[in-house]
Specification:
transferase, 20 strands, branched-chain amino acid biosynthesis, about 35% helix, magnesium ion binding, Rossmann fold, thiamine pyrophosphate, 6-stranded parallel β-sheet
Length: about 625
């Protein structure tokens, strides 16, 4: 099995992985499963019981080490496990029954796969003899999730449960992290077996490379010191590797500008003078342009995805590429690398620091004076900003900015997907890793509330804000009931513009303002329907019905007081319905399918950077 192996297979016959404890006789497979979860350090499981997984829920009731959080929808369980993992760095765990319970996990599993989140999803399956007969609530969840898991297992024998759980957690958390699914037949959970720990494991071929090749490191260091316009392009892999301290050392040693992707916000302090912003479709003008005009891009734990590169064949036309990643499949996938480096980001960056220091000792240092003159001019000329609405309504950017400014230190922010996601990326300062959670690769609406729930469950001492749009909120808000009943006091800001904001923005720009099916809150004024012209649902009433404290804010004059009140409430979930104007847009923007050279700082405003350099 390789680093990127996927697919179900019978669990292998194990080899010894170390000294064994005395076996515990006469346990069921279900008891073995819960004991295994305890031994691998899983302290929280998000899930819903059902027929096929029900045997596991009985011994879980007796566990003093595993807390189960009963969610309202399996999608919420998966996103909560992801939020838990992103906030804590530990493996998130979710559990569901067979059939529709398992298929409801598909979206969060795909989300975790795209964003390289360590996740173990445990599903019940019909009895082994019934597999393949279209039995009640049967679904081939291993086959369904084969393309979106790092690996998955079908367990049909009780004795295979301990080593399978140990292998699943190891695979999920090592190398490039990712989701692993363990599908367990009901009769395996009910059968009698023995339990011993540590179990015998067997993972032939799974040997993630963590130590980078020294020659490649030296070549990268030489390019860095020889470059005139280098950029450190930092992706989420740096956060997952715990390499943020090393990154800061490398950045300050080289003096190169740093751009952090949507998944890497907080990997390098936003306030640091070398930070030039987030790149991408809605990235800062300086970050987008720095990559376009660079003569060297040092990509660390990033994958050159389309949201960063824009039209790929026009991306960074003058740049040599150093690409470091734990996953060899990413290197050269979208952009050829002049210096490919396979390894763990922490080890790569630490070795780069030593190699660059050696270059400096030999008198070879980079001179980026002219480069920084350009970068500083672009930052001054095209800063991030927004306009206040002329009608006196709340600007959504202002709401999000003030939430960030008034939040306690080290607050964790989980954002949904859409305009509010981009504004949260731009107008909140991220100084520490694991304080920004979002769905980057899959772009999953409905992510924020359950992810915030998982983050708060994993880090109960941290303040956790979910910043959601009214569209996203209506997909998974039922998990507020879960929060209220399980003492998980998250805070939710609904950026309520009454529309699917990002889709509406595209309709404004590219579809002649034909707003087809993007209005959420009401029918047209004067229409012959009961709720014409009114906001439906009333989010305050809805949140209160689910056991939350709820408030509404419609005026800039109320903004700070409402946010302060929300921050002061820590014994229950809090929901604030911020009524914002509907025509706000996310800028800067690179239209889909176009070159990053066509970045627009605002509507109708295309920056002028002068002639491109081609040396």
């Amino acid at each position: 099995m390789t680093e990127q192996a996927t697919g179900a297979h019978p669990t292998p016959r194990p080899r010894s992985s170390g000294p064994q404890s005395a076996p515990v006789e006469h346990v069921t497979g279900a008891q073995s499963l819960i004991r295994s979860l305890e031994e691998v350090g899983a302290d929280t499981v998000f899930g819903i019981p059902g027929g096929a997984i029900l045997p596991a829920y009985d011994p879980m009731m007796d566990s003093t080490r595993v807390r189960h959080v009963l969610v309202r929808h399996e999608q919420g369980a998966g996103h909560a496990a992801t939020g838990y993992a992103q906030a804590t760095g530990r493996v998130g765990v979710c559990m569901a029954t067979s059939g529709p319970g398992a298929t409801n996990l598909v979206t969060p599993i795909a989300d975790a796969h795209m964003d390289s989140v360590p996740l173990v999803a445990i599903t019940g399956q019909v009895a082994a003899k019934s597999i393949g007969t279209d039995a009640f609530q049967e679904a081939d969840i291993c086959g369904i999730t084969m393309p979106i898991t790092k690996h998955n297992f079908l367990v049909t024998k009780a004795e295979d449960i301990p080593h399978t759980i140990a292998e699943a957690f190891h695979i999920a958390s090592t190398g490039r992290p990712g989701p692993v699914l363990v599908d367990i037949a009901k009769d395996a959970l009910q059968a009698k077996t023995t339990f011993s720990w540590p179990p015998q494991t067997d993972l032939p071929g799974y040997r993630p490379v963590t130590k980078p090749h020294a020659k490649q490191i030296r070549e990268a260091a030489k390019l860095i010191t020889a470059a005139r316009r280098p950029v450190l392009y930092v992706g989420g892999g740096v956060v997952k590797a715990g390499a943020t301290a090393e990154l800061k050392v490398l950045a300050e040693l080289t003096g190169a500008p740093v751009t952090t992707t949507l998944m890497a916000l907080g990997a390098f302090p936003d306030s640091h003078p070398q930070h030039v912003g987030m790149p991408g479709m809605h990235g800062a003008v300086t970050a987008v342009t720095a990559l376009q005009k660079a003569d060297l891009i040092v990509a660390l734990g990033a994958r050159f995805d389309d949201r960063v590169t824009g039209k790929l064949d026009s991306f960074a036309p003058y740049a040599k590429i150093v690409h470091a990643d734990i996953d060899p499949a990413e290197i050269g996938k979208n952009r050829a690398a002049d210096v490919p480096i396979v390894g763990d980001a922490r080890e790569v960056i630490a070795d780069l620091v030593q190699a660059v220091q050696a270059e400096h000792t030999e008198g070879r240092t980079g001179d980026y004076t002219a480069w920084w003159k350009d970068l500083d001019r672009w930052r001054d000329t095209y800063p991030l900003g927004y306009d206040q609405p002329e009608n006196g309504m709340l600007a959504p950017q202002h709401v999000i900015e003030r939430i960030g400014q008034l939040a306690p230190d080290n607050t964790v922010f989980a954002a949904g997907v859409g305009q509010h996601q981009m504004w949260s990326a731009h107008f909140i300062d991220y100084e520490q890793p694991a304080t920004w959670l979002n769905s980057g690769g899959a772009g999953t609406m409905g992510y924020a509330v359950p992810a915030a729930m998982g983050a708060k469950a994993g880090r109960p001492d941290a303040t956790v804000w979910a910043i959601d749009g009214d569209g996203c909120f209506q997909m998974t808000n039922q998990e507020l009931t879960t929060c209220a009943l399980n003492n998980i006091p998250i805070k939710v800001a609904i950026i309520n513009n009454g529309a699917l904001g990002m889709v509406r923005q595209w309709q404004t720009l590219f579809y002649n303002q034909r707003y087809s099916n993007t209005v959420l809150h009401a029918g047209p004024e004067g229409a012959d329907q009961p709720n014409a012209g009114t906001r439906v649902p009333d989010f305050v009433k809805l949140a209160e019905a689910m056991g939350c404290v709820a408030m509404r804010c419609e005026s800039p004059d109320e903004l700070d007081a409402v946010i302060a009140k929300a921050n002061a409430i820590n014994d229950r979930p809090v929901v604030v319905d911020f009524i914002v104007h509907e025509d706000a847009m996310v800028w800067p923007m690179v239209a889909a399918g176009t070159s990053n050279d066509e970045v627009m700082a605002a509507r109708g405003v295309r920056p002028d950077f002068g002639d491109n350099e081609d040396d």
